[in-house]
């Protein structure tokens, strides 16, 4: 049985990744090496993932609402496709938490010496990536919420348009 994502788990992942991001910056800077740059595309890719997750959630919610309101133009929702959306959401939220924590910790490390040359650019890119990662978490949780079947007692379809369990799989 697939359980909903628990926010404390995501918070723990973010805190752990944040400590790794902060410590990595501290170790690299302490060894005298050049700090790793954060590409500007990191925030863009994460923002794109967040947009896809939010778009899927809005689309699925609209289709389920149309079915519930019994509109004649309502398109059926494929249960397997919805299950794939849930898997995508479940996989994206911990990744978003890890990225938000990692980039957030690195940003926190860089904030101490923000005035040094080059650090403000790296820090700005890391901060943008951390914010985009939070958007990934929000989009994933929204998609997971939209795809949740109310009740879920397994006796039949809880939402109109969604098929219940197949006869050969029902207890």
How does the SSE layout of this entry go?
Elements (H helix, E strand, L loop, with lengths): L6 H24 L9 H29 L10 H33 L7 H28 L25
Helix pairs in contact: 1-3, 2-3, 2-4, 3-4
Rg value: 21 Å
User: Structural class of the secondary elements?
Assistant: mainly alpha
What is the string of helix and strand elements? HHHH
Query: Low-confidence segments, ≥5 residues, pLDDT <50?
Result: 153-159, 163-171
- C-alpha geometry: elongated
Distance between the amino and carboxyl termini: 14 Å
Q: Count of DSSP E strands?
A: 0
Summarize the main sheet.
none
Mean pLDDT: 87
The total of helices stands at 4
Percent in helix: 55-70%
What fraction of the residues are assigned to beta strands by DSSP?
Answer: under 5%
Describe this structure as you would to a colleague.
The chain has helices spanning 7-30, 40-68, 79-111, 119-146. It has 171 residues and is mainly alpha-helical. It starts with 6 loop residues before the first helix and ends in a 25-residue tail after the last helix. 29% of the residues are buried. Keywords: Membrane, Transmembrane, Transmembrane helix.
